[in-house]
Design a protein that fits this description.
153 residues; alpha/beta; Nucleotidyltransferase, domain 5; five-stranded mixed sheet; 4 helices; 39% helix
Amino acid sequence: MEMALSVYTDGGCLGNPGPGGWAYVIVLRTFQGERIVNEGKGAEKHTTNNRMELQAVISALRALKAARGLPQQAAVFTDSQYVQKGITEWILLWKRNNWRTSAKQPVKNQDLWKELDAMTGELKLQWKWVKGHAGNLWNERCDRMVKRALAAL
């Protein structure tokens, strides 16, 4: 089933770790076409690329949950395989292993993963990976927003 609501996210860093930014765009598709119903961006002075990718998704889902009149289900598009595989595959093992990796190390960014995990239990989401910098309109918009958030630091 195709979702009427699409969430596009992106995160990035200048250096890794370094200053980082995140952004999201929530798009509603109707018979009249697509329109942005919400978007946001932010930045941190010292972070990692993976944290920014996660923060983008968490911020988008917060906005979705707070929105009135929008479906509480969406297709989430990320250009981060870390996020897409993490939430659809790896997290099940991490939780089973008390938030440890297969190498018995603590899961990195555990605070954000736990927050994302809690949020995904409250929404109906499809997780989709999209190739970054490949001409996808909404992914490219997020990328530009990340750059603007970084420039504003």
